[in-house]
Write a structure and sequence with these properties.
Helix content: 40-55%
Radius of gyration: 16 Å
Structural class: alpha/beta
């Protein structure tokens, strides 16, 4: 809402693989987390640029957790489509994530190494062209900070500038209302600057 209040056109695209729509909607992502979802996000962006009053040269992608994974993926695998991205608490390699979730889609790492390799957003971090803001909490009990650390190392190794916000006392979801307000204000300010004409 804060972004909309500042004049941003905000759209939430529900790609295949999401919950609440049945097995046929979720099944396409099996064995290839990120691939179908990014295709759907880009198809949605194509539709929006034809039917909504937005400038295709001033588009950002933003998400938290799995959405943070998607934001990083969009910035690195489709760098010509997004001028800016905000990636909050992203999974950067599903080898580092909860096996109870991951193995439903990819099986065990030893059984599908290629599927797991495909989820590693770090390998394409050098493709970054737009402005990128990474937010992660050190006490994150769901997406461990190792994910962000790998990405930070890759961006530094590729000599890519990026913005970083680390919150030492926060978990996966913000517990302190003041922290939540601060983070969302920082994101809105970052996007306003990054997408300025």
């Amino acid at each position: 809402q804060e972004l909309a209040d500042r004049g941003f056109f905000v759209a939430e695209l529900d790609n295949r693989g999401g919950s609440g729509r049945g097995q046929a909607f979720a099944a396409p992502i099996a064995g290839q987390l990120g691939k179908i979802e990014l295709e759907d996000q880009l198809a949605g962006l194509d539709w929006l640029t034809k039917h909504a009053p937005i400038d295709p040269a001033r588009v950002a992608i933003y998400g938290h957790s799995y959405g943070g994974f998607m934001a990083a993926l969009g910035m690195f695998d489709a760098p010509d489509r997004f001028k800016a991205g905000v990636s909050g608490s992203p999974v950067t390699d599903f080898r580092l994530y909860d096996t109870g979730y991951t193995e439903r889609f990819l099986g065990a790492p030893n059984d599908d190494a290629a599927g797991y390799d495909g989820t590693d957003v770090v390998k394409n971090a050098a493709n970054l062209r737009g402005r990128f803001f990474l937010v992660h909490n050190l006490m994150d009990e769901n997406v461990h900070f190792d994910n962000a650390a790998r990405l930070i190392d890759a961006l530094v190794a590729a000599d890519k500038p990026f913005d970083l916000l680390v919150l030492p006392g926060e978990r996966h979801g913000y517990r302190d209302p003041k922290t939540k307000e601060y983070v969302y204000r920082r994101i809105a300010t970052f996007l306003a600057d990054a997408l300025a004409p």
